[in-house]
Amino acid sequence: MTEKEKKSATALLLPLAALSGVLAGLAALAVAEAVAGGVRPQAGPVVAVGGAAIDRTPAAVKDWAIRHFGTNDKLFLQLGILAVLALFALALGMVALRFRRTGAAGVLLFGVVGALAATGRPDSAGITDALPSVAGAVVGAVVLYVLVGRLRPRGPAAEAVAPPGARWDRRSFVIAAGAAAVGSAGAGLLGRSLSGAGGRDAVASRRNLVLPAPASRARAVPKGAQLRVPGVSPFVTPNGDFYRVDTALVVPKVDATTWRLRIHGQGVRRPLTLTFDDLLRRELVERDITLTCVSNEVGGPYVGNARWIGVRLADLLADLGVKPPSAGGPADQLVARSVDGMTIGSPVEDVMDGRDALLALGMNGEPLPFAHGFPVRMVVPGLYGFVSACKWIKDIELTTFDAYDPYWVKRGWARRAPIKTESRIDTPKPFARPKTGTVMVAGVAWAQHRGIDKVEVRVDDGPWQEARLAAEDTRDTWRQWSFPWRATKGGHTLTVRATDRTGAVQTDRRTRTIPDGASGWHSVVVTVD
Hints:
Elements: H1 3-39, H2 45-56, H3 59-69, H4 73-98, H5 100-119, H6 131-149, H7 156-161, H8 170-198, H9 200-207, E1 260-265, E2 272-275, H10 276-281, E3 285-292, E4 303-312, H11 313-319, E5 333-338, E6 343-347, H12 348-351, E7 358-363, E8 366-367, E9 377-379, E10 393-399, E11 422-427, E12 437-446, E13 452-459, E14 465-466, E15 468-469, E16 479-487, E17 490-500, E18 522-528
Parallel strand pairs: 1-10
Antiparallel strand pairs: 1-2, 3-4, 4-7, 5-6, 5-10, 7-8, 7-9, 11-12, 12-16, 13-14, 13-17, 15-16, 17-18
Helix pairs in contact: 1-4, 1-6, 1-8, 2-4, 2-5, 4-5, 5-6, 6-8
């Protein structure tokens, strides 16, 4: 074979070598996910590497991802990881055509990365979390080694004197590639089945749960709290529409029958471990509370209102001898830990100042959805979620702000973050084209634990005009508003601002969400036909 023929043969086999790399990558991921189904889903390499990437991503980049991808940010991250893995798999396949052992070693290297990521996660169960990545890498390396071997001359002697592409075994390669594809599909289905089986007890515990009637019911929502204006957000946000912003790539499914909550730390008279039934035996209260994510931009969607059922956290802490700093207590920070390793710090003073800080068990008349923290989560009116709303909670430690920095504080966010007074125009939408005449401008305003006193609307650079407020439910919920605007032809800018019960007027100063929440006035531009 001439040199030209050798190069031509090798070039023809490069696509097949790249395909071998992709098939090896698929086999590695499928086997890893199957093993993770038997260990725990969070130990899978994509989830582990994704979680590690989230932990090391600068806060500004996370904020950008939430702003552009919304609650799909995790999906885009996982797709990005898979895309990068696919590119490396293609490259390793082509390298293996020339350097067979080097290509296989490259696959093993990715297994090491996955294993380190899995065992280094805050929620790691130990060395067993490395098994999925290691097993997947070994299988992937073997698959690549075998497939590329089918593209080379048979036997050591032949391989020593002939280049890749000389007398390769087409039939053997097709059979091996087909077997790898079928095996990967089977392993993937097995992994999905095992992961589902692991969560069946949790699903059953939620399905069988009947929440007791609360001893203290929330009052009926006033009839005038929900405006009859098309386009305005519903006063009570349905569970399926409630925003979800967290770092969990796999939603934890915790069995309520085996769930435990440990409370300990400074000022705790005696550490206590509670079961779910222990909470059910305590006095349950029902409250309407609006939650807001600190990643919510001005006019953003990450705010929602729900009716929560739970145990008052202040009562539970008081029973254990905990006192707020104002009463001489040694702890000023409550650190809540989630089953997925998240840590969230809340001011003890705020939790115990009389507001309805809850260990919530129910949401809008049913047990918490898994995505929103089943079986138990924290809800604290007036504080952004990153300093209060720990989902899938398993541990509460009383400590100090000086002694411990929770997850988000380590990444540049504020230690304390009361929700800012904000308002939003829900209708008309930006760039809408309403007709001349009366156009109803409407939306929501919130200042949890202070309440909304007034909302004003401005058209272009005109004077501020007071909007009509809907009936107030409680000071811990948002409040709807409306303003009948006599629209004239042309382009117009509508702006809204709110005033809370302390007399503070929503500032026009625009700030980023980092470190303690966005501020500024929300405006929409419309063209009246």
